[in-house]
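Hi support team,

I submitted a single chain yesterday and got back a structure, but I'm not sure I'm reading the token output correctly. Could someone confirm the output below corresponds to the sequence I sent? I've pasted both exactly as they appear in my results page.

Thanks,
R.
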Amino acid sequence: MDARSDRNAIPLAVDLDGTLIATDLLWEGLFLLLKKNPLYLFLVPFWAAGLENLSGHWQSLWYHGINVASAQAFTKRFSEKFAGPPDNQAWGDYVGIKIVAQSIAETKSTDAATLIQFLERGPSFEILKERKGSFRAWDHQLLQEMYVVKVKDKAHAKDKWDIFDIVRAVPGPKESLEMIQPTQSENPCKMG
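Hi R., thanks for writing in. Yes, this is the structure output for that exact sequence:
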């Protein structure tokens, strides 16, 4: 099937490297900041001041220092091949491809509609974190834990990539993964 000529084809979009999310959040955050006060535009050059000025607590989807066997194995393989640990983008690419491959294997299909229906049923996926992830049917959001990280004192860093200490996973181990997601009434995303 050629999706360009089939008007009834359902597209399957996968943001494997997270650049759509990161770019959208960057622009959205900048415009919201400027909406509050247009003079903040003059602070933008200081925003991109560099890693040496990084401090405080941050949120992270994934970090190569996660103490989970599958994450450590992935980090080891990646580091051996690319002479440095994987970042969020590499993690997202790897996990995204594994989710698509698992979905194709379990459905025995590459049809987008079949894959979407499968993902909407909520199967769990190993995503190199303590908890497995699954997709929420109504907005196709990957439900997963995130991490609160603290910028590490440079004197305690093992190497130039050792920049964070993981403070904790959010939500906690006994909390719903829905906790950090917008509800259906709060979310303007309407699938279908």
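A quick pointer for reading it: The chain has a mean pLDDT of 85. Let us know if anything else looks off.

Best,
Support desk
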